[in-house]
Every structure is written in C-alpha cells, then in structure tokens.
Amino acid sequence: MAKKLYIKTYGCQMNAYDSARMADVLAPLGYAPAAAAEEADMVILNTCHIREKAAEKVFSELGRLRPLKTRKAAAGGRLILAVAGCVAQAEGAEILARAPYVDIVLGPQTYHRLGEMVAQAARAGGHVLDTDFPAEAKFDFLPEHAAPQGVSAFLPVQEGCDKFCTFCVVPYTRGAELSRPAAAILAEARRLATQGAREITLLGQNVNAYRGAAEDGAWRLGRLIRALAGMEGLRRIRYTTSHPLDVDDELMAAHRDVPQLMPFLHLPVQSGADRVLAAMNRRHGADDYRRVIDRLRRARPDITFSSDFIVGFPGESDEDFARTLALVREIGFARAFSFKYSARPGTPAALMPDQVPDAVKAARLAELQALLAGQQHAFNAACIGRTLEVLFEKRGRHAGQLVGRSPYLQAVHAPAPDRLIGALATVRITEALANSLAGELAGCVAEMTA
Ligand code: SAH
Ligand code: SF4
Ligand code: F3S
After folding, report:
1. Of the candidates 197, 227, 262, which is a domain's last residue?
2. Pure H helices in 48-113
3. Is residue 137 a part of any domain in this protein?
4. Which of 5, 194, 201, 376 has the fewest CB atoms below 10 angstroms from its CB?
5. Ligand 3 pocket by Cβ (under 6 Å)
6. Where are the strands (E) in 363-435, listed by range?
7. What is the pLDDT of residues 306-358, one digit of tens each?
8. Of the bound ligands, which one is closest to the alpha carbon of residue 89?
9. Ligand 1 site residues, Cβ closer than 6 angstroms
10. Are 98 and 152 found together in one domain?
11. How far is CA 443 from the centre of its chain?
12. Is 218 inside a domain boundary?
C-alpha cells in the first residue's frame, strides 16, 4: 500500500544528506515523498542542535504537528511522528517527556535501522528511542537504490568531530571522527556520476581531518580529491566544512594541481583574537589562519574564501572584537556566516564566567554583518563584465532561464535551453543581485549527454 513520507530538514548539509538516505531506507517499505506534512502518513523532523534557536524550532514544530496526528487518529488512521538528528541525539529522553505523542526518536548514527523502528512503532504503538553510536557504520548499510541527487551531489566522507571547541555540540551529537574507506567513497561517487552528478561536494563535520583506509595505507583528503578528479563525468569537486588546523601539504597541493577542485573554500575562523581562539580551544591563532590563507592563495591565485564567525563568546572584549573586524578587513571574504554566541548545555563555554550580555552581542553582530555584507556585495559587483564558468543545475524562476553556480558558489541565472542542465557553460555576468548573479550565455565548455 502506498504511504506518504514528509521530511523536514534543519541544520547542515550532512543533515540534508541524511534526510535523503532516510527516504531511501523507507522507500522499500512503500513510503513515497509527500509534498506537505498534512498529506503524510509519516513525518520526520531532522533536527539541528547547534544554537538554542535551532533546537527550539523542534518543539514548536512538534506542537504544530500534534493536531494532524489527532485528526488522523480520529479518522481511523495513524500518523507516525519521528524526531531525528542532533536534537534527538542530545535530548532524546526530554523530547519523549515533553512531547509524548512522538513515536520514534533516532540519533544521526542509526538511520539505517529506521525500517525496523517504523515496524516496531506500527506494531507496538509505544515509543522507540535509538540514540546509540552503533559499532557498525551507517554508511555501510545504505540501500542499493538511492534516489538521484541531481547535477550537484553531496557525498559524506567523514563524520563526527574530535576537536571539542568549547562552544560546540557536534562532538557530542555526531560522536567521534569516523572516516569512510576510500573505495566506498569512490564507488558512491561513480554511482552519483552515473546518475547525472557533475559536481560532488565532499562532506564532513571536519572534512579535512579525513583519514580513510585504502589498500596503500590511509588516504588524506588531498589524495581522495586527486582520485575523484580522474572520474568520468565529474567536472567539479568541493569540500566542506574544513578546519584551519587540518589544511595539510597534500590538500594545498590539490588546490594547486587539480583544476576540478573549485577555487572557493569555506574555512571557519570564528574569531580574530588569539585570547578568544584559545578559550574556544580552536588550537590555532589568528596569524596561523592568515598563513593558511596566504599559502592557499599562492597555491591557487583565484581562490576566494568564506568563513564562520561567533561574536560575544564568553569574555570577548571590545578589543577582541576589533581584532575580528581587522582580520575580516584584511582577508576579504566572498561570503560568510556569523552568529551570536549561544550557550549550549553540556559544553564547557556555557559554564565560563563573563558571559556577554545579549545587547552587546547584537551590536557586534550587526557591525560584523554590515562589514561582511559589504565585502560580499563588492565581490559580486566585481564579477560584472567577467565571463564565469557556470554549471547549470535546474530551471530558474522565469521561463527559458536556467540557474547554476559559478566556481565561487554564487548562484547564476541566465537564459539558456533545458538541454544545458548538467552542462558547464561560460556566462558573461551582466548584473549582481543581492544573493545571485545574472548573465548571458557566452559559450558551452562541455555539454554532457546523459
Ligand atoms: N564543523 C564546522 C562547523 C560546525 S557548526 C567547523 O568546525 O567550523 C557551524 C558553525 O556554527 C560554526 O562554525 C560556528 O561558527 C557556529 N556555532 C557552533 N556552535 C555555536 C554556538 N554555540 N553558538 C553560536 N554559533 C555556533
Ligand atoms: Fe564543532 Fe569545532 Fe568540531 Fe567544528 S571543529 S564541529 S566547531 S567542535
Ligand atoms: Fe546542526 Fe548537527 Fe549539523 S547540530 S549543524 S545538524 S551536525
């Protein structure tokens, strides 16, 4: 019997990937995608615990879903409600206490067991709670048939984090670092390319800490990128999120030598003040970050950067914050994400003295975001008149238009025929909008036929 599944995803790209895999796991049980929660027989919230606001969303969303469940039960049916992801991992028992109508709570490491959990919930009616870190790796239990991801695909190579930055929940929700064997990654990449992927983004909470088993010893990320660069059909490679400490010589060399590796890197720095970086346990100073950026620029002169920043970390003074602004002015970012520090239960920074008042955080965030927005705008504006290579991914909002990404991850719209979806084309940029570029087709570098 056909059943409908609705998944709502919060948080990072790893969660987006996990959501797609959960859909794959449930497809053999007869679950097909639903367009909205209202028409679903099962709803999964795939949650994020990174900041307080992200975690709170889960409980308000559950409150909205509850009447759907009641209505469905009144009509003689059943809505299975599952909470997955990092809030489930961190607060599994609390979820069941606060929202006892939730049927299944599963952590990020157990989605390959979701089929059994659904069967159990359907049979017994009680709750299922599975937030283990099982010995078997979930990646090894992927179903044979995975829905295609499209032109640009995610591929996890590593999961978990051993860095323990003092503000961060990820080491607790995703567990210890675990790298997938190189052969398994190459096999999945080949499958993705066969299904039409032309760009692969290698994923990991700490992706450049990758150390994957291979026949000739452990491969680091640079080695893996070289192997992928030779793969039929693949035109572009990216990776995220990386840590400045793990940019090793091999990765530097990949940026120098591998043209498929895109000249855009998300490299979070968090702060420009050594005192704050030390309290965050980032294990590097501001000048170390500058040196990594300089070396990457020497390796690949057209490379551009994006970063993450936290303002108002406990003890951050006006002078510390000024150092962050100085670092941003000096380096220049093509885009960036910045957040107010959010105290997370169970992390060391939540217990530190000198928590910064919210008004101070808000003022610092506004100042930093204005600076970063200006840099992003200037970078986009400087693209006007340039011809950029664009990988077209799908139709745009207007008829006859396609949208794709530049090498620097900017969204680019241009009038182009549908057959260029999946093709790498050159586009002359004519306009810079707030979050995207517009242009006209200049030529086609490589048209791919399926
Ligand atoms: N693994 C990545 C990203 C982790 S989460 C890394 O090492 O950078 C993404 C971003 O969220 C972080 O880079 C950080 O800027 C932000 N973040 C994490 N915990 C936070 C907290 N407690 N408060 C505010 N921002 C936080
Ligand atoms: Fe969190 Fe730090 Fe690990 Fe990134 S490196 S996931 S910020 S602990
Ligand atoms: Fe959020 Fe978990 Fe990703 S906390 S950012 S969903 S690893």
Report:
1. 262
2. 52-74, 85-98
3. no
4. 194
5. 11-12, 14-15, 48-50, 85-86, 169-170, 173-174, 205
6. 387-395, 401-405, 411-415, 424-432
7. 999 999 999 999 999 999 999 999 999 999 999 999 999 999 999 999 999 99
8. 3
9. 50-51, 167-168, 170, 205-206, 241, 243, 268, 270, 308, 310, 339, 341-342, 344
10. no
11. 31
12. yes
